[in-house]
Amino acid sequence: MNLDNLAGMVNDGVARIGQWVDSKPAGPLNRVVGLVIGAPAWTVLGLASWLTPSPNGFGTHLQLGLGECTMLHLTGYPCPMCGMTTTFTLFAHLRPIDALINQPFGIVLFSVTVAMAAIGLADLLSGRGYWRAALRWVDRRESRLAGVLMFGMLGGWVYKVIRMHPELIGMG
Known about the structure:
- By secondary structure, the protein is an all-alpha fold.
- The chain has one domain.
- Helix content is 72%, strand content 0%.
- The chain contains eight helices and no strands.
- α2 (26-50) packs across α4 and α4 (84-92) runs antiparallel to α5.
- The longest helix has 25 residues, at 26-50.
- It is globular and about 60 Å long.
- The chain starts with a helix and ends in an 8-residue tail after the last helix.
């Protein structure tokens, strides 16, 4: 089997799933999708509001019983997502300036999480299918969004590295 055949099979499968979804009654399906979209986002936002942000700008995840960051431990340099739990916690505690200073890319991920929580709740309560409109919006911008996310994550990582190691730019 070559890659073209595999890609064709995947596209056919996605099309069949789309047809199956479209054939189901909209209200109940939209409510289930709302729950599936909303539950993880509500959980993340709930945990972020429950945690206490670490004053270090990283390490808040340790309160969940998770281990320390392997990359930071082994190299002394942060991973690309360093400080994200702390940033989410700062946002959830209504400290947006501190969150932005801690990890600027976090505002993007936090905003997406809030949007998913809102869309999930709206669909769970109304069954109107707001998730479909959101999916269409993302689908039309998929390449640009992927680029923005990758550039944003890279930029946030470089920012965090420099904040933790200012000597790299002659500031420490």
